[in-house]
Design goal:
alpha+beta, 11-stranded mixed beta sheet, 27% helix, Acyl_CoA_acyltransferase, GNAT_dom, GNAT family N-acetyltransferase
Length: 313
Amino acid sequence: MHNDVTATGHAARIATVDALLPAPLPFEVGGDSVLLSAEVGDTTAAGLTTCTGLGPDSPQSMWRALVEHRLEVQLAGPDPAAGLDALLTRWDEHLRSLARVGDTECAAVLSRPSRDTAGATELLRHGFAPVGVLAVRPAQRMAAGPDATPGVCIRHATPDDLSTAVALQLELQRYDAQFGRITLRPGVEELITKELLHHLERPEPQVWIAELYGQPLGMVVLQMPDETGWIRHRVAASRVGYLSSLAVSEAARSSGVGTALAAHAHQVFDEAGADVVLLHHAVANPRSTPFWYAQGYRPLWTGWQRRPAVRSR
């Protein structure tokens, strides 16, 4: 009952924050998940904790710590910041019974609606940092098509482009690894090669190469609305496109290649009837943050992380 009351109050509060946020549901405890709760006066907080682990050879290991403790949060009442503070204290106690102090392959992670800023100070005080954003761009089907960029030609990638695609993706990974969202691991080139080859061997791969005066210097990888069930629940929309990655060689930065690739991707998504497009980017990346917001995106969810999950007192 307490969980239902918190969920109802949380849903009412979130509905006023961002129209593109999906309606939250009461937590359902199952498997290894644990429900935490806290009260501060008339404010209630509920959190569902889960833990997942990966091997270092998993493709997903590039994007996270090998062990990830995650907390889903619902807050109701007049002081959500105080409620979150109390809930984080409970979570800290829970994590100390599970995780080893100082283990850098163990992270504590939670996502908060980007426009729901209550509790940001408390997250910082508990040692969390905002490391990633799930950004959203609503469809703009009434807009004119993309302008041509002098010298830029965009075409479907083929298996013959594999070495170029791998080099572009590796360059992007190495740059992004500075900002906390990506972990460069031994064998990363092999993981990237296997993933890109899977895309390129499809009948109509949603991988596009940008050539600048005949030189392949950029790439964009897309997931169409029938492939995005894994992330569709994060946004209030029916048909969701996902822009997996956009990479431009350092030699071609500020040449218009990135803008041309983004415009082409949006045209592909519009033709597929996508209501919104989602993508992830690192908060601290000084290139991607201004670039994507200039292309019509805005923050929807902000990912906060503490790595290691448990630090010495």
